[in-house]
Amino acid sequence: MAPAEEERVSQAIHAMDGSHVHGVTQVAGNLFQTFLAAPPPLRDRIRIQEFRNLITERVRSFVGREFVRRAVNDLLSSPTFPSGYVLIRGEPGIGKTALMCALANEGGYLHHFNIAPQNIRSSRAFLENISAQLVVRYGLDHPTLPPSAGEDSAFLSQLLAEAAAVAEKPIVILVDALDEAENDAREANRLFLPPTLPEGVYFIVSSREQVDYRLFVDRRNDIYLRDNDPENLADIRLFVLSFLKQYEETMRERVASWKVTTDGFVDELVDRSQGNFMYLVHVLADIRDGRLIPDSIESIKKLPRGLQAYYQRNWRTMRSQDQSRFEQVFEPVLRLLATVREPVTLDYLKDLTGLDPARIREVIASWRPFLNETEDGDDLLYRVYHLSFQDFLAVEGVGLKPYHERIAMRALEKIPGFLDGSLSST
Q1: Domain 3-225 belongs to what topology?
Q2: pLDDT at residue 405 in the model
């Protein structure tokens, strides 16, 4: 990396007021400690570990987004916007969740993340999580949540009013991926978000574009993350430069192997990303780890253009190596992982596919960059890493419908009397 460019990257990173961090900040850490110290009836309703893990993971390589911060801060301090909703809109992979994680990390805001692959998407999960956070954070006189807390927004609205009466500064609540929340009451807001908020209370909500996110509220301002926006592309460039700086020795050799300058490499990645951060997450890791090299793709200008093209290239490459094995082993495992609504074990995949565990492990190892692995006691759980890969599998080839049917049938088969017909005769 040229000295001037290296200096530019260093200055940009250190000028971000904490936006480029490698773990949970003191502000967010204090909030999590407060939640952990809460009485069990409240603590058990808060998604502490799941969301702390997510925030830690996503802020690790987070850069930029100053233009979004400025827009949010301007709204929160505007006398013409005393309360209400800020809706951050953008396509899959453009960095909405990473941005929300950074806001939670830096501001210590109350937060809820809808994560479809983990089946954290119900209105009850949201209402109980945020209600318990409000009680604990603002010391409200509610030792437990009432049974009705997860049924509608009545109790949440009561808590918001109580918290606003004692809060010394604006109350900010983050809700990520509204589009991934269950669509279970078409006449109401998703997650039963209250349409009217007390003065000084703000919800910052994210959603993908062109989705019926159903948010009918009294006051709302939208912030758009557009892939071709110059400020978004500037952040894309900063992300690439930051990655080169972080893995400087390895990436210097990788870039040289493509026979391009650093500037040429950065320009090509920015162009081919089409403004999408998830594309860069995958492609840069593939280049760093030697999965994408000049021997496998003749020129840097032959890199796939855009996230869906990247997924398609990997899919077709794997299929071409051994089509029969791919269709009998790789495809069923990956499509099932894209279909299930929560992380699953190796035994679960074995039960649904009938495959030997060793072969399932081979699939997981080969597609590890696209999957998330978590521990649950002695078990390892697997799920699709990002909804954009699930979207790709839903339209590629046979889609996911046969696998939804397989999962449903397997669940029915486990009901006593279903297979022999005795269930219908009782």
Answers
A1: Rossmann fold (3.40.50)
A2: 85
- pLDDT for 22: 54
Element of type H or E holding 73:
helix 66-76
User: Is the pLDDT at 17 greater than 50, yes or no?
Assistant: no
pLDDT of residue 399: 83
Closest CA to 334 of 352, 310, 308: 352
Closest CA to 235 of 95, 102, 106: 95
For residues 300 and 330, the answer to whether their CB atoms sit within 8 Å is no
pLDDT-wise least confident of 1-5, 76-80, 168-172, 348-352:
1-5
Token pair listed for 141: 């006189």
> Where do the CATH 3.40.50 domains begin and end in the chain?
3-225
pLDDT, averaged across the chain: 89
The topology under which CATH files domain 312-413 is Arc Repressor Mutant, subunit A (1.10.10)
- Beta-carbon neighbour count of residue 363 at 10 Å? 23
| C-alpha separations of 152 from 53, 145, 163 in Å | 28, 13, 18
Q: Which residues contact 312 (CB under 8 A, 6 or more apart)?
A: 304, 392, 396
For 165-169, which contacts have Cβ atoms below 8 Å and span 24 or more sequence positions?
166/138, 166/139, 166/140, 167/138, 167/200, 169/200
User: How far apart are alpha carbons 292 and 411 in whole angstroms?
Assistant: 40
Render pLDDT for 102-160 as a digit per residue (tens, 0 to 9): 999 999 999 999 988 788 999 999 999 999 999 999 999 999 999 999 999 999 999 99
Interior angle at CA 62, CA 130 and CA 213, nearest 5? 45
Q: Model confidence over 252-273: pLDDT tens digits?
A: 999 999 999 999 999 999 999 9
- Cα distances from 361 to residues 6, 208, 240, 254, in angstroms, run 40, 33, 32, 29
Q: How far is CA 234 from the centre of its chain?
A: 22
pLDDT tens digit sequence for 294-338? 988 878 999 999 999 999 999 998 899 999 999 999 999 999 988
Q: Which two tokens stand for residue 112?
A: 């809820």
Check the CA dihedral 96-97-98-100 and report its sign.
Answer: positive
Residue 85 CB burial class (10 angstroms; 0-12, 13-18, ≥19): buried
Residue intervals of the chain classified under CATH 1.10.10.10 are: 312-413
